[in-house]
Amino acid sequence: MLYTLFVVNKAGGLIYQQNFSETAAKLSSNDYLRLASTFHSIQAISRQLSPVHSRFGFGIERIETDTFVLQAFQSQTGVKFVVTASPETKNLKNFLRRLYELYADYVLKNPFYELDMPIRCELWETMLQRAVEDHQRASS
Amino acid sequence: MELRRFTQPNKPTNTTTVSNSEIAKWNILDRPLTRSRDELALSTFSFLFAEAVQYLQTRVQQVSELEDKLNQLGYRVGQRALELLYFRERINKREIRIVSILGFIRVQLWKFLFKKSADYLKKVTDREDEYYIEEEEPLVNRFISVPKDFGQLNCAAFMAGIIRGALDSAGFTASVSAHYIHRAESSRRAVSIFMIRLEESVMNRERRLAG
């Protein structure tokens, strides 16, 4: 089951956040912002910890705990998609790739969206909802 | 922040010279007009159109002005598209009646531009000089979500301009505007309609032809 989605811009600012489940932890919007930028920084640090320097790696991709998993995907332009889900959830990697596709289509091709600003696009919401439902159906 | 991973290794640059004929192949103005249709990626068009809307936004004060500018932009496309379509398809017949030119736009011109015909062409029941073309999802709006503070702006005003341009070139002066229509019974997206109001002179001619 999917819990929460974060979209983080290349500077570490949270530009979109949504809960997909009743059981997802509810935090104040300030806490979400803090969480997003903290994760952004940790990821940047983790990249430097690696003994081998990879040109394409972007640091932490997945965190597993007893109660949830966190999967991250970063695009070439530095936009990060981070999703938390229950531990048994599969196909999270594909799900995030799908979201990246939707972001490229319904956010970046929208003339009323300003880069790196919070996402407020009706179509993105609709398509995101659809993608979540598809994922839920596929994994159930 | 480290940006090194974004840089690609330097590729050897291609130093071979390009002949003039090859340049001519790339230059759209040097291609023969009769050339079979080229298709353009939807993404390419969408980015260009989004850029155009963004540019126009910086040049207007009000939403209605933006709509006008988009309409004007489409007008120029419509004029040329009609000309090119007639030329390419070797159409020798000139439409002189309102319903047939509107049908021509709905089917042929639409297919030429968007690879599909428009969904419906309807007449406004209580007005003699008004028609509308209905399109469930106009191509230009595929990726566009209009924010609330832009009111009823419909970026398909660009397509309304295309219709106006084509009609005007064909000798049917009209004003065309794009609107969203919310259908109460369905929760799906609002459909777009292109409201076409023909000018009095055109209506007079139509009456003469009918009579």
From TrEMBL, chain A:
InterPro entries: Longin-like_dom_sf, TRAPPC. Keywords: Endoplasmic reticulum, ER-Golgi transport, Golgi apparatus, Transport. It holds the Pfam family Sybindin. One of its GO terms (cellular component) is endoplasmic reticulum. Its main location: endoplasmic reticulum. It is found in: Endoplasmic reticulum; Golgi apparatus, cis-Golgi network; Golgi apparatus. GO terms for biological process: endoplasmic reticulum to Golgi vesicle-mediated transport. PANTHER family: TRAFFICKING PROTEIN PARTICLE COMPLEX SUBUNIT, TRAFFICKING PROTEIN PARTICLE COMPLEX SUBUNIT 4. Part of the multisubunit transport protein particle (TRAPP) complex. Belongs to the TRAPP small subunits family. TRAPPC4 subfamily. This is Trafficking protein particle complex subunit. It comes from Galdieria yellowstonensis. The lineage of its organism: Eukaryota, Rhodophyta, Bangiophyceae, Galdieriales, Galdieriaceae.
TrEMBL record, chain B:
One of its GO terms (cellular component) is TRAPPIII protein complex. PANTHER family: 41-2 PROTEIN ANTIGEN-RELATED, TRAFFICKING PROTEIN PARTICLE COMPLEX SUBUNIT 5. The keyword Glycoprotein does not apply. Belongs to the TRAPP small subunits family. BET3 subfamily. It comes from the Eukaryota. Its main location: endoplasmic reticulum. GO terms for biological process: endoplasmic reticulum to Golgi vesicle-mediated transport. Pfam families: TRAPP. It is found in: Endoplasmic reticulum; Golgi apparatus, cis-Golgi network. This is Trafficking protein particle complex subunit. Keywords: Endoplasmic reticulum, ER-Golgi transport, Golgi apparatus, Transport. Part of the multisubunit TRAPP (transport protein particle) complex.
